[in-house]
Amino acid sequence: MIQLLKLAMRDLLRNRRRSFFSALGLGAGLALLLLMAAVVQGEFGGSLDAAIRLQSGHVQIRAKTYDENKTSLAWEDLVATPNQIASQIAALAPVQAATPRLFASGILAVRDQSIGVRIIGLDPSSAASAPYRDGLIGGAFLTADDRQGILIGKPLADKAGLKAGDQIQLSVNTSNGDVDQQAFTVRGIYSTRTPGFDEGTIFMPLAKAQAITQAGDHASTIFVLLKNRDETDAVVQAIQAGPYQIKTWQQMNSVVTDTEKLSQGYMVMLYLIVLAITATVIVNTLIMAVFERTREIGILAAIGMKARSLMAMFFVESGILAVGGIIMGLVLGGVLVAYATTVGFYIGNVGATGLTLGETIYARLNISDAITLTALAFVITLLAGLYPALIAARMEPVHALRGGD
Q: Cα(290)–Cα(314) distance, rounded to whole angstroms?
């Protein structure tokens, strides 16, 4: 084996530039795949995290007849005495926060503009409201006893030309099917860096939302955040739901999880295509080496080197190119992934049905993905050496000694 390694190294170093660029081609392909895997994981992981943090939570308690697509405000479709139920759930050890929320649809009118919005009544002091409290970029945050204030997102403020302190008219659907219109003051402007969410969502205190919608002591859902989402099943089993249904983050974000699974299948095909293209560089390099060393191969065969040893020599050469290319790919890919992880790729307000996308995508590279892609690159490169190795092993010594003529 040592002798084969020496022969392989000597042969590769005969044309250092060609060997280097062959390994670099493999390295560039691996680096590209690492970046792609990290960006895809970051995109879907970030979308899921944002959806849980902003919209679904880890668990929700709802009325069995509640239809979120219709934003029903009928009392039979809502959760009664929501504060009492939320307090009981919040007492569970794995729960970070449990708070009632009331959803309604409305129309915001300012000057000559009318904009459809989603209204969320929440408890301003709850830990679940932290994304909006921490994302405040102008004005003041809501208080529980505020009866005239609302919180709007920056994209909506920019679109309507609003700032903190401005007056607006808000028309809201009520539980009896009527529409109530009242004047409100923009208390503050927030940004969660998720334009699709911020542009269409406004907040008001839960008590005010219950009053304007005539929902009484009811809420659309009990929004539950956990300290660790792996404890979701345990929390679901511990909750005494009674007449209500329990929805988990997997059920509420099925579009994200299903799309991620589908994309993984396409990504595997793309990985194989990219590696196959880079493997052709290795194949071309080794085939050129075979024809350049035809006489040498003939001499080795004439002095007794067996066909399997000739094949092994070219497999060792492809292995060396693979190791060199993988090292360069890991270094280059590490730099690219580090950049995409810290700086990210700004995409702005890109809408996608069912996905809560932030304005910037940050990469996330799983160790398992890096190991899988590295192993796949190594195996495919070794397989790329099979054809040149067979050519060398099948050469007739006499024919090879004549230089293949």
A: 9
Q: What pLDDT digit, counting tens, does each position of 195-246 carry?
A: 889 998 999 999 999 999 999 999 999 999 999 999 999 999 999 878 899 9
pLDDT for 25: 86
Cβ neighbourhood burial of 221 (10 Å; 0-12, 13-18, 19+): buried
Tell me the pTM: 0.79
pLDDT tens column, 118-132: 999 999 999 999 999
Is the pLDDT at 287 greater than 80? The verdict is no
Q: What are phi and psi of 235, to 5 degrees?
A: -70, -40
Q: In which domain, by residue range, is 115 found? A: 65-242
Question: Cα separations (Å) of 190 from 26, 120, 128, 158, 225?
Answer: 46, 14, 15, 12, 21
Contact indicator for 221, 133 with CB cutoff of 8 Å = no
Residue 156: pLDDT above 70?
yes
For 329, how many CA atoms within 13 A lie in the half-sphere containing its CB? 31
Flag whether 273 is in a domain: yes
Q: Report the C-alpha gap between 187 and 163 in whole angstroms.
A: 9
Helix, strand and coil in the chain, % to nearest 5 = 55, 20, 25
Tell me, yes or no, whether 148 and 73 share the same domain.
Answer: yes
Q: Does 352 score more than 60 pLDDT?
A: no
User: To which residue do tokens 């208390």 refer?
Assistant: 187
d(CA 97, CA 57): 10
- Structural domains of the chain, count: 2
Question: Helix (H, G, I), strand (E, B), or coil: what is residue 183?
Answer: strand
